[in-house]
Amino acid sequence: MARVAGLTQGQRLTEEQRRILDNPRVRRVAGVLADERVVGPIIALHESARTAAEAAAACSCDIGAIANSLIFRCDDRPLLILTSGAHRVDVKKVQRQLGRGHLHRADADYVLQVTGQVIGGVAPVGHPDHIETIVDTALAGYPAIWADAGHPHALFPTTYEELIRITSGTPMQVA
Q: pTM score, two decimals?
């Protein structure tokens, strides 16, 4: 089972937190994080973190420190863009920098198909197959970043450098 932060000695996980942390998608992400030696624990939230604003409120951090995991289709292949919650992806800019064909946001069915996770809980890792990943350079301005952990109520802390390392991501200005 994934570790959970924010518990003091003597506190116990609620049944809801146990259910979230025992979710197969969260367990898969936790396994990858452990394999990659990521030390930050997965946190099971009582409230939803489907949006950057919800996640920032739950973590008491700046919205820009939330790493949104957005799946795009690029030349009929999945592309994961980890972008700061403070702004939107400029699709034309990313497309120019990639030097490839058409780039567009994927629908919910495609996201689930390629990640095994639902929109609002897509983690940077833990997908059935490796997904090419771009990491927004704006995230470098935050000492701590929060990313989804495979469930809309689960997050984990990380850093910009760690995100690049665990995803084999390419740093890029995306806004």
A: 0.92
